[in-house]
Amino acid sequence: MTALPTVSATQTAAPQGLSLAERLEKRYAxxxxxxxxxxxxxxxxxxxxxxxxxxxxxxxYIYYQIPTMQGRVVAKVVxxxxxxxxxxxxxxxxxxxxxxxxTTREGEMVHGGVEAKEFWALPEAETFTSIPWDTTVxxxxxxxxxxxxFGDIGGSVLPTDVRSLFKITHEEFTDRTGLELRSGxxxxxxxxxxxxxxxxxxxxxxxxxxENLERMRPVYKKIIGYAQAMGFNMIQGDYExxxxxxxxxxxxxxNLTADRMTTYRQICRQVARELxxxxxxxxxxxxxxxxxxxxxxxxxxxxxxNVVEDGRVELHATELAKNAIAGALKHTPGSxxxxxxxxxxYKRFWDVGQYVTMDLSWxxxxxxxxxxxxxxxxxxxxQPDASVNPYLSHTYxxxxxxxxxxxxxxxxxxxxxxxxxxxxxxxxxMGESIDAFEADKYLMNTIPSxxxxxxxDIKKDEWARYCSTLTEWEFTQYWASIP
Length: 483
Ligand SMILES: NC(=O)CC[C@H](N)C(=O)O
Known about the structure:
By secondary structure, this protein is of the alpha+beta class. The chain has two domains: 26-158, Ubiquitin-like (UB roll), CATH 3.10.20.70; 173-467, Glutamine synthetase/guanido kinase, catalytic domain (Creatine Kinase, Chain A, domain 2). The protein is built from 16 helices and 16 strands. The strands form two sheets. Strands 7, 8, 9, 10, 11, 12, 13, 14, 15 and 16 form a ten-stranded mixed beta sheet that branches. Strands 1, 2, 3, 4, 5 and 6 form a six-stranded mixed beta sheet that branches. α1 (20-28) crosses α5 (162-177) and α10 (332-339) runs antiparallel to α12. Residues 188, 240, 290-291, 293, 348, 355-356, 367, 382 line the site of glutamine. Glutamine binds at residues 188, 240, 290-291, 293, 348, 355-356, 367, 382. Keywords: Ligase. It holds the Pfam family Gln-synt_C. InterPro entries: Gln_synt_N_sf (IPR036651), Gln_synth/guanido_kin_cat_dom (IPR014746), Gln_synth_cat_dom (IPR008146). This is Glutamine synthetase family protein.
């Protein structure tokens, strides 16, 4: 198979001493990015290879798709026979699509409004995948660019394309440190419907009970089957709480994991449709039950060596891993708006005894830490929930770990006070999270301002919509009781 082209040109020769922000800025200033991608797409090998795949799979339609700032997927459907034309010119879309065409309470459409310019998105032919529930349809991921006719920026990468953002951040990290981020996600989700009726003894948990898993056999079998057909290496699954299951696929290069997470959600929706059930990644559907987390299991690799471990048998983290952990913890308040992206996300933290912590800590195999070494070589970041946009979460985590590694931050001892930032807590509401996001100057300066600007517009509006909504709880509490 032809290799995917990098998004940004290799810059190992870039002057040392530049901050991550300056380095990313240089990469985004590259106006040849579109042309490089198109040249790659126009090569004989890429055209031939995609043509063969389409023929072999019997593809009639292709979704040219791209993830949005909120982790949804937008696409155009095109009859497969036009693939060569689309390799060359890609698709064009209204820019606010990157923000799901979200309109604020004041009636302003985020990311530019109706008058906003188009963006162009070129397909990555190598990502062609048939949809197993209807193999006449296939998907191809695209990368978005500023149109060539935009004089000073035409041809550069569109900053609000979060998939490219993570790729560029990762390429930058790898060029400079020689390290690659690999990750495995643990997406938990809640199912509702007859097959999700739970059996539980009073006072006990339904977690791991094979009887509950067995009731959901059609669900996990369909999900695993579709995922395998789409190239996932599915490794295990379990039942966790009422109607809640978690299915895992093998860790991989973090870019691929983020794509798979996005596809996994699409698979689950399809399975829910087929079984006439409901499936939700809402972070906290029930009080007194576990929330839907999406723990990120992270490792850093130099070639084939995992530098998070050093071969000792006892649970441990290398000095480099401790620096990375310190960076992740330091920026946990500032990135919570990404890791916990909904109003509902914060309810997951308030419910005590449900394996989630609001304190900033790292530990070994206990589940009461923000980050733990669940097995040697693996840093499990437990903060994110199932609403997370995996492209943004990995971008923010990489930037945070980069700070920890570059500045030699100190994570202290496992479950001890984290000396470099003792006393800091995780935001407890989305409102606090918005403040912490804006207060984290390092992250604000590092991630392109277009991204943080649009993201804040969306999240501030979401918080305002929530704050301005009367709830049933208020009536129960106050209607009759106010003297
Ligand atoms: N498996 C577990 O440790 C439970 C995690 C918990 N569901 C969470 O919200 O993160």
